[in-house]
Specification:
By secondary structure, the protein is α+β, with helices and mostly antiparallel strands. It is built from 16 helices and 22 strands.
Length: about 550
């Protein structure tokens, strides 16, 4: 038999015809009345429950659940655990788990799954040493004990080194103490090396991720609790707040929710005010959720001088900042933690806006302003410092520029340093800053978790406090306050810690942070979450 061959030109014809045929369309997110569309600055990330950046916390909270859950009224409610018992010495917590829970892949949620998740967290305890709960559990393991014990299929016991009072609050955090399906662990069992897929017990499951475009979450039909009202949640990637407003105006997205700001948040505050004035749009502001603050480096020149730090706090015109930058959406803050936070209503005298007092403090400390000079000096050194912020965060940039102008009026030179977020956070940890943004985290972190983290260089606080002569004493008192079982002693210790930090002018509180929400009236059930990181998508539906 003779083999038949095609002439070369026929291959070219076939290739051309193939190009002319209709091509498969790129996958598109679901649409319709059963789809809620939200937006975020980026994709939600790998959603590893036991690691931090770059996963977005609101999305982690949708997929993964805690043993107990923080409520808006400050209480802790049963969640994956139906109840718990505490030993007389406060060191053992025995949790009874729900029996009707499975992971979204069908794997059972049980005591073995709880232990497997805690084991990988403790394996990487150094990544979590800013959380005292992890330190307490690790200390038990390090001493040869067992921190997490399986009693039976639906009973698990946590054993601490000391009676750590905020254990339930930290178990309610979005990360790292939440639970991944055992089938989604890597072969090594170490989730710090990555996970196979983001699979939890939560009301949503991830079904599609398209880099730079969108992520799709689908209702978990096997969810043990009340299922989401909508079948799908689509999170579109819209990095710019102005573009987000256009997307809302054109109906491309249904909801704007999160921190407000001039380009750095979900929505510009001037645009938010426009929505507030429109009759056909719902626009609301949450109660204060955390503190927008800056940390002053007590070890680095010239903020190692207490007089300089106090002068800075008196020189910044916060009332004008609240009015012109935050447009009244975020109220002025005068203390590191809002008085509404536990143990934080201390009646501390605020550093009021008083440029004359600021100048008097500098004069008395020997920082003089020579005739013809713009900036003060002492012992031949100019009074100059670096203020560090995330370069593409327009809100931080605006605040930094206002502070720069305010401090110039009293003779302090401020060099602005705007960098990528990774470089910014590196500065927080290594202390290469004069002043740097360092917001608190709000409930259920404040004040215990935030204070606990002050003892390690995981955020700006450790470095900012390192120059204080009483730094070791502060750290010792933080260690004590976290484990004392005496309520009065606990309150007294918090008073000592927070009063010292306030009097030493380590922090420049700016505003109490809020979230904003914008949606159309047909979106029902929209409300604010109990923390700034949680968004209650489950209750939202279009009617």
């Amino acid at each position: 038999m003779t083999e038949r061959r095609f002439a070369p030109w026929l291959f070219a014809v076939f290739a051309l015809l193939t190009l002319m045929l209709p091509q498969p369309l790129q996958a598109a997110p679901p649409e319709g009345d059963d789809v809620l569309v939200y937006s975020w600055n980026s994709n939600v990330g790998p959603l590893n429950p036991h690691t931090y950046s770059p996963s977005q916390m609101f999305a982690q909270a949708m997929v993964y659940e805690p043993l107990v859950r923080y409520q808006a009224d400050g209480t802790i409610a049963p969640w994956l655990a139906t109840s718990w018992k505490i030993s007389e010495d406060g060191k053992e917590y025995t949790f009874t788990l729900r029996k009707d829970v499975t992971f979204s892949d069908g794997q059972p949620f049980n005591a073995e799954a709880v232990k497997k998740n805690f084991d990988t967290i403790l394996l990487n305890h150094k990544n979590h040493d800013w959380l005292e709960l992890v330190n307490q559990l690790h200390a038990v393991e390090e001493a040869g004990g067992q921190a997490v014990t399986v009693i039976d299929d639906h009973t698990v016991k946590l054993t601490l080194k000391a009676p750590y009072y905020p254990i339930l609050q930290e178990l309610a955090l979005i990360r790292p103490d939440r639970f991944l399906s055992p089938a989604a662990f890597p072969e090594s069992g170490d989730t710090a090396q990555g996970i196979k897929a983001p699979i939890g017990t939560g009301p949503w499951k991830v079904v599609e991720m398209v880099k730079g475009e969108y992520d799709v979450f689908e209702r978990n039909e096997a969810y043990w609790g009340k299922k989401p009202a909508m079948k799908y949640l689509v999170v579109k990637v819209i990095p710019d707040s102005n573009a987000r407003a256009v997307a809302f105006d054109t109906g491309e997205i249904d909801l704007i929710y999160g921190a407000g700001g001039h380009g750095g948040g979900q929505l510009g505050l001037d645009t938010f005010q426009r929505y507030q004035q429109m009759g056909n749009v719902e626009a609301s502001v949450s109660p204060p959720l955390a503190t927008r603050a800056m940390a002053l480096n007590t070890k680095r020149f010239p903020t190692n001088d207490l007089a300089v730090r106090r002068a800075i706090l008196h020189a910044v015109n916060k009332p004008a900042m609240v009015e012109h930058i935050f447009l009244g959406v975020e109220p002025q803050a005068d203390t590191l933690f809002a008085p509404s936070m536990p143990y934080c209503d201390l009646g501390l005298a605020p550093y009021g806006f008083d440029p004359a007092e600021a100048e008097a403090l500098l004069d008395k400390a020997g920082w003089t302003l020579a005739e013809g000079d713009e900036y003060r000096a002492k012992d031949g050194k100019e009074l100059a410092l670096e203020l560090c912020f995330v370069g593409n965060d327009a809100l931080q940039k605006s605040v930094a520029e206002v502070i720069q102008g305010d401090l110039k009026r009293i003779g302090i030179k401020v060099n602005l340093v705007g960098e990528e977020s990774d470089s910014f956070y590196t500065r927080q940890m290594n202390g290469e800053f004069g002043i740097i943004f360092g917001d608190t985290w709000g409930p259920p972190y404040d004040p215990h978790s935030f204070c606990s983290s002050m003892r390690v260089p995981s955020h700006a606080d450790y470095q900012a406090q390192l120059g204080l002569p009483m730094k070791a004493e502060i750290d010792e008192k933080i260690g004590q306050v976290l484990v004392t079982v005496d309520e009065k002693e606990r309150a007294d210790l918090y008073r000592d810690i927070l009063t010292t930090l306030h009097e030493q002018a380590v922090y420049l509180p700016l505003t109490y942070m809020t979230s904003i929400m914008v949606h159309r009236p047909e979106l029902k059930g929209a409300s604010f979450g109990p923390t700034q990181q949680e968004i209650p998508f489950e209750s939202m539906e279009k009617k």
